Amino acid sequence: MPYLIFFLATLVFSFIITFLIRKLALRLSIVDVPGSSDRKIHQTPIPLLGGLAIFISFFCALGALVYFYPSNIFGDFIALSKLFWIFLGGVFLVIGGYLDDKYNLKPRYQIIWALLAAAAISLSDIGISHVRNPFGGVIRFDLFKFGFLTLPQDLFTFFWLLIMMYTTKLLDGLDGLVSGIVGIGSLIIFFVALRPFVHQFDTAYLAIGLAGVFLGFLIWNFHPAKIFLGESGSLLAGYFLGILAIISGSKVAAALLIMGVPILDLIWIILRRVFFEKKSFAEGDSKHLHFRLLGAGFSHRGAVLFLYAITAAFGLTTLFFQTQQKAVILVLVVLVMIGLGGWLTKSKS
User: Fold this and answer.
1) Which residues lie below 8 Å from residue 118, measured CB to CB, with a gap of 6+?
2) What are the domain boundaries of the chain?
3) Which of 2, 22, 291, 325 could lock 227 by a disulfide, CB 3.0 to 4.6 Å apart?
4) What is the pLDDT of residue 72?
5) Phi and psi angles of residue 285, each rounded to the nearest 5 degrees, phi first
């Protein structure tokens, strides 16, 4: 019952804060104008700054939780000091996101804020000391210590967060797609954290709170969207989900299954742009998986719901399978992605 109350409270609070931020974005004329690129398929200007709503909602919810339950929630797996570093990284993303939403920064300036956020977490002792090897034993990441650095743990954390942030950033092309997928993913991690042999109650509160925040935002963001995530929101989505996966040390496989198809889409996009089209990987286009679904005849909502279903289907497997079985399912994710790519290419032709 406390989890349900916290979830509903964050959902309602996020809904209200998003309404207010939408009004602010309109007042400041921070909107996404349609027609400026082939990736912008909306018909009217849509307010940005959605990331600010996500940021305020999430940290106000956490603040209330810490205030009312200062010694009962956090400490077993997530120290209160770690929440400060998560907050600091989020501040970097919100500042950079505001500047980009307002002034449309070039990619080389956009990435600075993501690098700062990933660095803040990497240098804060938030990381994974080891993961289970699907073939037996464990793979350790805390092999070498140099002052405040732990290698390769800190490098893994840094690049993991960058991958997650840019996966959700590039996925953010259809109304409600990213916010819904992060909401689904957070709910799945919540249930994983409550499994009898896991019992990570602080992780469960973070996960259910994050789900409430993104699903409250989704009410405004689902097609036809009344507000967009913007630069900071699309990065915060991957940032929070990535941290949620690593902060307990046992949810990376879950995050990979939840975000497997989008991550593979990101990898293919980078390879295609750099090696085949000989252009910058940061240069946008309309060849993402979600746009290809539209080209294959899916409606806007239909494409989003289809990707929700894939996310939920692979994510739910984390509740029923162990490490070695999850490795097999990850191979299945790759095969599904290859099959989707072949089908969509054939449909287009």
Assistant:
1) 89, 157, 158, 159, 161, 162, 165
2) 2-251
3) 22
4) 62
5) -155, -175
